[in-house]
Amino acid sequence: MRRSQATVVAAAALAAAVVLVPGAVPGPTTAEEQVFVVGQAIYAADEDNAQFAGATAPTEDTACTDSSYAIKTWRVTGTYNWFYNGEGAPPAVASTALAAITASGDTVGKGANRCGLATSFTTAYKYGGTSTAKPQVASDLTCTGNDGKSVTGWGALPPKVLAYTCTFFNAKGVVIASDALIDNVVYTWFTAKPANCAGQLYDLETTMTHERLHTAGLAHVDQVRSASQTMTPSSAPCDTSRRLLGAGDYAGLKAAGTVR
Ligand SMILES: [Zn+2]
User: Fold this and answer.
1) Which contiguous run of DSSP H or E holds residue 97?
2) Which CATH superfamily is domain 5-54+61-255 in?
3) Ion ligand 1 neighbours, Cβ < 5 Å
4) Distance in angstroms (rounded) separating the CA atoms of residues 58 and 201
5) pLDDT digit string (tens) for 166-195?
6) Which of 50, 170, 184, 232 pairs with 58 at a CA distance of 20 to 30 A?
């Protein structure tokens, strides 16, 4: 347990860091050509992850009464084009993962929510096709370079990390690319919840809605106080209740400047 907690702390510290990487544009660099990158995780709330022990169902459903959110300095404007690399996809979801990931993007692009709020957001999270390019997320949670292409795919991540997103943005805060890596070693996934869901089995759509909200500029809210929002740091196994946005997630998207 000690080792895993240390890992979480290290990952959290990394997630808070803003790292300047070489600009994608060759030649003289102006402030507007600088590229920044931030990585953010979603964690598994399994039984030996004490830091997130409160991650199971809240006693009261606050999905639509809790408007808490946290935002970063970047935003998606217009259309976010993303590609899918299915290499290493777990067999259980290999044929259905793309549809689940696409649904997650649509949820964030339109603002689809659990609270009857207008789905009038004008961003589009557009699937651009398959790609053999790798997500620029290393297994040690380093964001590696910037190829200007947003790729979602599968690979190894540190213990407790379900998925990790690296978002590249310019000095104006506009997202240039955002890559997501989903664990295919430690955790198992479903896209349709099995009747007797148990064990370390996680909902891919919920996880990717969370990751796409990172792409949109959202950060984490309090695990316990905002347990019904999609942007809690960790997810519980078998939970599908947060595929769509809660009131806080929705308010965060508005505040991040997604709505034009
Ligand atoms: Zn996260």
Assistant:
1) helix 97-110
2) Collagenase (Catalytic Domain) (3.40.390.10)
3) 40, 42
4) 20
5) 999 999 999 999 999 999 999 999 999 999
6) 184
